[in-house]
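Bench notes, afternoon.
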Amino acid sequence: MTGKIALEEHFAIPETLEDSAPYAAGAGWSTLEQRLLDREHHRLSEMDTYGIAFTILSLNSPGIQAIADTRRANDVARLANDRLAESIAKRPDRFGGFAALAMQDVAAATAELTRSVRELGFIGVMLNGFQQAGDGTDVLYYDHPRYAPFWARVEELGVPIYLHPREPLPGLSIYEGHPWLLGPVWAFAHETAVHALRLMTSGLFDRHPRLTMILGHLGEMIPYNAWRIDHRISKMPKGIPAQRTIADYLRSNVVLTTSGNFHTPTLRAAIAEVGVDRILFSVDYPFEHTADAATWFDRAEIAEADRVKIGRGNAAALFKIAQV
């Protein structure tokens, strides 16, 4: 399929590059480093080869969310956004941008969000999980009441928020001695799923019904557990702040991407749970291979009309991108 739109596609700047070093072994780091820093050449060649017409770029994880010092985090976020804007200005027909934000200072994050959308032309935000703060051991989740002005501005601007995984902080005992369970194997999805569920059960989407949250990897396991989550919540003697079920939010305020989860039975299950209109194609470049993502998707045993929706139509509508 040609004309695909992809939206979990990462780049790095020198200030955040080393964050990605743990996800490449040996000589593989040289290739990953080059591809993260390249925002135009090899990236465009791969897009052309595998039928991707438009890509929304985002800073590598954990990026700004791992910078505890508020001033430095704000400075690096602004720098990353400015550099991304420069690349988009060169090829606005091929690239869009997700803003990077430092979330310690709600007012500053809200201001940078506004600048990124209204001045730089970005079409969304990517938050790489919880924000470290203080001495680096403090963690901030975005269901806290302090973020009320931020969420109000997101809704006002009408841009989606991509909640992207990051590693839990060292010392979480369940992973000690089992490093192979960290990262994309399991810890990424677990951490992100809990954060997303905190946002959904906090009543965020009741207060701001026009908000859209994006979850990668076909939903970080939540769609396939939604019935049981709702079933058990309904048995609790005390209610929760949310006014609707997790299944309801998945079908009204959440969209999923195929990033890094190239498995047709899982895709079909996601379609059955949330509907085909709420699923978008993505690669997770350069941590995943474009060839793997595109070849799988182009051949996946789904209806051709569904392939076109997932491949480009849904993303074009969500981000107001001219059909490519």
